[in-house]
Amino acid sequence: MPFPAIRAGETLRGQALGEVMVAPENSGLSPGDLVVHFLGWRDYAAVPVTQCRKVRDDLPDRVTHLGHGSTAYAALTRGIHVRPGDTAFISSGGGAIGSMAAQIARLHGAARVIGSTSTREKADRLVMGLGYDAAIYRGGAPISQQLAEAAPEGIDVFVDNVGGEQFQAGVIACREGARVVVMGTLSQQLAAGRGRGAPITLDSAHILMKRLLIRGYSADDNPEAQQEWEQHLGEWLRSGQLRFPHVIVDGLAEAPQALEQTIRGGHLGTVIVKV
Ligand SMILES: NC(=O)c1ccc[n+]([C@@H]2O[C@H](COP(=O)([O-])OP(=O)(O)OC[C@H]3O[C@@H](n4cnc5c(N)ncnc54)[C@H](OP(=O)(O)O)[C@@H]3O)[C@@H](O)[C@H]2O)c1
After folding, report:
1. 42 CA to centre of ligand 1 in angstroms
2. Which ligand 1 atom sits closest to the C-alpha of 161?
3. Phi/psi class of residue 131: alpha, beta or left (left: φ > 0; alpha: ψ in -120 to 50)?
4. Residue 28 lies in domain
5. Is the CB of 191 under 6 A from ligand 1?
6. In this structure, what is the dihedral angle of CA atoms 263, 246, 5, 50, given to the nearest 10 degrees?
7. From CA 39, how far away is CA 37, in angstroms rounded?
8. Could you tell me if the CB of 171 is within 6 A of ligand 1?
9. Both 86 and 203 in a single domain?
10. pTM score, two decimals?
11. Buried-most residue among 9, 41, 171, 247 (CB within 10 A)?
12. Is 127's C-beta closer than 6 angstroms to any atom of ligand 1?
């Protein structure tokens, strides 16, 4: 979900992964345990036990706890259901959610996965590096035209992180019975002059005649999916069925540049700042 704006002097927010140094007796936590929290990025933090989530420490790489694999997993197994043979369209396919959603859709049997991004060069990287069957990009031909070419028979699943023109194009491309999960509104959040929304015109006949399911979804809606995800995450990483596309930026001082680069589309996958 979009986070509130950060003001000067506030601690940078976002999921943080850390190791317990000391913990109260009977808290269920011990020194050395790995925990995730949302209380800001710091070298050391005094964090209420109730706001820490202990995570397993048997994954091939600890950083895989970060990012939005669990969000994408919950969206595709709870928000809507991806089914074998589906054609899926993931807007912002190279982002933290999108790069995991594409792989999770495939692991659930999606036959064709299409992503969107910002440039032709990045579209090539989605296909060559992230396993998309096809990728479309902003600033080229109209998105609806590119999507019709990439999915001539339409789409069954649409994970929308972007909104605006891409949401409109995705709904038009939907086949009968398609399922749409709305995760974010990047075109509104990140466009210059943001805050004005990303209004579009949508013919509701598309929704009615094609019996579409369109659902706004937050991973917070299904906290139980987290444990299931972590189970799969370990199995899929070890078997090589899943990758965790990410970039690590070294040092808290680099965080502002990392954020700027992320917004400009300079990275693929999850951007992690190592404090
Ligand atoms: N529902 C939930 O539970 C939940 C949870 C977390 C986050 N979210 C939301 O889901 C969305 C995706 O999150 P994320 O973490 O995957 O994002 P992210 O990785 O931070 O996405 C950043 C990417 O957005 C793209 N972008 C930049 N400007 C854009 C524009 N004007 N229009 C469209 N795309 C633009 C760029 O990629 P390209 O260069 O590839 O275009 C950039 O790399 C966000 O809206 C976020 O707030 C939802």
Report:
1. 24
2. 11
3. left
4. 1-55
5. yes
6. 170
7. 6
8. no
9. yes
10. 0.95
11. 171
12. no
